[in-house]
């Protein structure tokens, strides 16, 4: 916290400051408990909670085979694989007698502690007090579930939410389901990493002149929702200097920042045309410290002097989406309101998913444990090592794809440019109309292009479909989004790139004819 | 369907009939897709969906040790245990490449088909068309999540919901979070199985005289929420003749019936004072057919000629609560609206939980498979056999507890009666004030009783805390709820019963003094 700031450090001041941000519906929400949370001595027989004894569960044990290397074909079992065993009594801190039982809505303590520790080490909120007690983390059932809970807590019919003009559109569904209104904010679509992402000047103008601007019929925005790193669909990341400006705007105009960050761990060093497959992740110089400090974009939390940032992370991209497991970081007051909603809706995320994630990370740590570090450090380091390997694979896939796209006849004929991504799992390809006027009916033209692409055997997402407002973004929506995440291997990415080139070429040949 | 009925059998007629039941907020809900659901030929390379290739997942395989007998201490592995192996490619119909991936919001097809088949065999809706296409099942994240989704879909500030006067109070939290109002409906608190549960005469009077009744300031109820079998907290079940009357009232006054049935599989044959530990589940006469036909209370679905019943089931009590896995049965129109909400909130329940449940049931079936039945039949039969064993254990626990309670000095002194439950996991103990006037300040008296109980080393739930409206139920709320689910073994239940007896006795000794 900066000296002399009036940042809210305790619950009472957080409450005072953030109460006005709550949605109208929050007041109807409270769990009607019929039980007491009181502590009972061990010799009291518990006949209150309707929990089945764990010996009613048909699963006696779960054994996991864990790969310490993604795309692992190493036959040397002891080296690149490990195992985890879970049964009714073990591991002692999270046996399945616990993970298969009813459990705390906020998440099972061992995993929750791991996650909070991770946030502390990588993106500790500036407003945090010394004991980390004025902010917290709760687990949730995937980022979509997190978004829902956050927006339900802070949005209602009176709320205006700003979202990057292109986005993961289901986020809009979540906002609009509360009755709130979404407005698009301008992006700089460029691969210049110092300029890309949210257009800060435009945003400043919009907010400073709200009462005479295009949305003057709406309330001033209370929330900015941003995928600030490896943005979906653009693959762009808001540079640090812009984050600082945006944070200042948030302070000046008093809005919350909901930072959705599913892709941030997959940072991409710049593509090197002289050595396209160069991959700094494979260098022995790349330590965990360097990855954390030089590669990762720091969260808005690290600028958050006054507790207005809500951060969403997920295990979907770095572990597996089917877990439906994510987490939310926020100041203690707002997070309690989000938890109140969870208490009366979903309750806890799947205990089996939590147990699998915790046991996997623990097993990774145990298999690499050296006596010189604490187990807590070992858990963190093992997990970051895993994440770095994921990031490395994605970076390689990005390189392979860019190289193959640049080698297509269509690219070399100037039909498209590629917005080299700075993080994540997406690449956008922007059409270059060249001597042709950009058509008026862009969506229809893009639909025609899509047909050419499918005929050539490749399926991408059309940019205009990810616009918050198609009219607003009409001029910029002539792009295609492709993901490097799902392909089987390099060859498939190369073949797909070839097909994309052919499809675009045939489209322009038709436009020309 | 009865001849000449005007039951809505197709989607259009369902829509016409049930559109007016939707909450105001439903219209704001729609998933903004940026992808097409179009079918692509196999040779098209998928670069659209942001799904990680399954080889990015750190878990390569999962092995389950499955007990076919609850509280299994059988050392003969081959007999009472079995195993299931899941890896990226197997089982072929639900490998972890599928269950750990993004998946359909409504649930993974193999488990979903199993569940629909189960509903078809046990509680097929009367309104169903020949192809079972006008109703369906979706999976959900536990019954609390199901409730939330159902109430969010059918309730808003204008809605009145009827709930049994004593209930699982978090259900009220869900209703009230939508802005809707809850009113209590009278119950017959008796262990006479032909009379227990919802007081139908009182309900008839209330509804027939709404405009002059105590709730005339509220809209007529649009929903009845009922735990009709093995009710929480009372352990009572609404008998068939009452279900018929209630259904007729639902038709006459046009309300929906939300039937929450987490406990129904644990049916209790009547306690036999001559032979307290008699357990018909242990009889060799007890076939699956007899259990299904003579033991289980049939769902309101089996009376549902006009598609107004929404049924909630869960895997929490018959598998494990930590899975967070449940399902919702309803007509196709209402279920689609519930699914629309799931699409923009939680999305699918945990894929790992789904995979574990499916693989467990499959493994149970494989280990008992005879060539004379189809695999579908084997899955169903194995699962019902498991459920019957769970029910048997609960029935035994109920017998042990009743016997021990009846043997206490306090019972024999007439301090309390026991409302022998007809299903579920709860028993209620009702105080008998005898020569004393029932006190005016019941809640305070019950709190004092609670202190005596805890002092004696046993924790129960106080009945008044589970009242929808304490004033309304004041006269009936002098009971304690105990669960037979969590205790370690018979001895603990016997010891707990003894302590309950002592606690009540000390309480009355104090009242007397």
UniProtKB/TrEMBL annotation, chains A, B:
Q: Name one GO biological process term.
A: tyrosine biosynthetic process
Answer yes or no on keyword Coiled coil. Answer: no
* CDD domains in UniProt: AAT_like
Annotated Gene Ontology MF terms? 2-aminoadipate transaminase activity; aromatic-amino-acid transaminase activity; pyridoxal phosphate binding
Q: Does the keyword Transferase apply?
A: yes
| SUPFAM superfamilies for this protein | PLP-dependent transferases
Q: Keywords for this entry?
A: Aminotransferase, Pyridoxal phosphate, Transferase
* Cofactor(s) this protein requires: pyridoxal 5'-phosphate
Similarity annotation: Belongs to the class-I pyridoxal-phosphate-dependent aminotransferase family.
In its UniProt entry, what is this protein called?
Aminotransferase class I/classII large domain-containing protein
Q: What is the species listed in this Swiss-Prot or TrEMBL entry?
A: Saccharomyces mikatae IFO 1815
The beginning of the lineage is: Eukaryota, Fungi, Dikarya, Ascomycota, Saccharomycotina
């Amino acid at each position: 916290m900066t000296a002399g700031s009036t940042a809210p450090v305790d619950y009472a001041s957080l409450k005072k400051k953030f109460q006005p941000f709550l949605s109208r519906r929050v007041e109807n929400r409270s769990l009607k408990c019929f039980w007491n949370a009181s502590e009972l001595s061990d010799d009291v027989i518990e006949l209150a909670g309707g929990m089945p004894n764990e010996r009613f569960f048909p699963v006696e044990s779960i054994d996991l085979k864990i790969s310490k290397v993604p795309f692992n074909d190493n036959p040397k079992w002891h080296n690149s694989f490990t195992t985890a065993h879970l049964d009714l009594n073990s591991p002692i801190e999270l046996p399945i007698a616990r993970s298969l039982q009813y459990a705390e809505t906020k998440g099972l303590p061992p995993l929750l502690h791991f996650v909070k520790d991770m946030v502390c080490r990588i993106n500790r909120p500036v407003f945090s007090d010394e004991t980390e007690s004025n902010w917290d983390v709760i687990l949730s059932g995937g980022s979509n579930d997190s978004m829902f809970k956050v927006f339900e807590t802070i949005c209602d019919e009176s709320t205006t939410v700003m979202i990057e003009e292109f986005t993961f559109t289901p986020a809009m569904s979540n906002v609009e389901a509360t009755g709130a209104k979404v407005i698009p904010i301008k992006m700089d679509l460029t691969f210049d990493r110092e300029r890309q992402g949210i257009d800060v000047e435009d945003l400043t103008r919009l907010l400073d002149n709200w009462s005479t601007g295009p949305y003057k019929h709406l309330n001033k925005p209370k929330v900015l929702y941003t995928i600030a790193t490896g943005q979906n669909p653009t693959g762009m990341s808001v540079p640090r200097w812009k984050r600082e400006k945006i944070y200042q705007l948030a302070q000046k105009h008093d809005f919350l920042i909901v930072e959705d960050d599913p892709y941030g761990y997959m940072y991409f060093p710049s593509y090197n045309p002289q050595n396209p497959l160069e991959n700094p992740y494979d260098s022995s110089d790349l330590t965990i410290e360097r990855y954390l400090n030089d590669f990762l974009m720091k969260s808005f939390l690290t600028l958050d002097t006054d507790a207005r940032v809500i951060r969403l992370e997920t295990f979907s991209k770095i572990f597996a989406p089917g877990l439906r497991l994510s987490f939310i970081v926020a100041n203690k007051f707002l997070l309690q309101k989000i938890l109140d909603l969870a208490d009366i809706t979903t309750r806890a995320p799947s205990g089996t998913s939590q147990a699998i994630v915790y046991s996997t990370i623990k097993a990774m740590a145990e298999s690499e444990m050296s006596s010189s570090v604490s187990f807590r450090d070992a858990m963190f380091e093992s997990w970051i090592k895993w994440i770095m390997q994921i990031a490395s694979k994605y970076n390689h896939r990005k390189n392979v794809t860019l190289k193959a796209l640049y080698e297509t006849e269509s690219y070399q004929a100037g039909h498209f440019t590629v917005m080299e991504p700075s993080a994540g799992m997406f690449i956008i390809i922007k059409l270059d109309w060249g001597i042709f006027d950009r058509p008026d009916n862009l969506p229809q033209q893009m639909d025609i292009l899509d047909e050419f692409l499918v005929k050539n055997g490749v399926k991408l997402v059309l940019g205009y479909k990810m616009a918050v407002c198609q009219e607003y973004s009409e001029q910029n929506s002539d792009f295609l989004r492709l993901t490097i995440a799902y392909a089987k291997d390099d060859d498939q990415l190369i073949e797909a790139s070839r097909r994309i080139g052919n499809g675009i070429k045939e489209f322009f040949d038709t436009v020309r004819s």
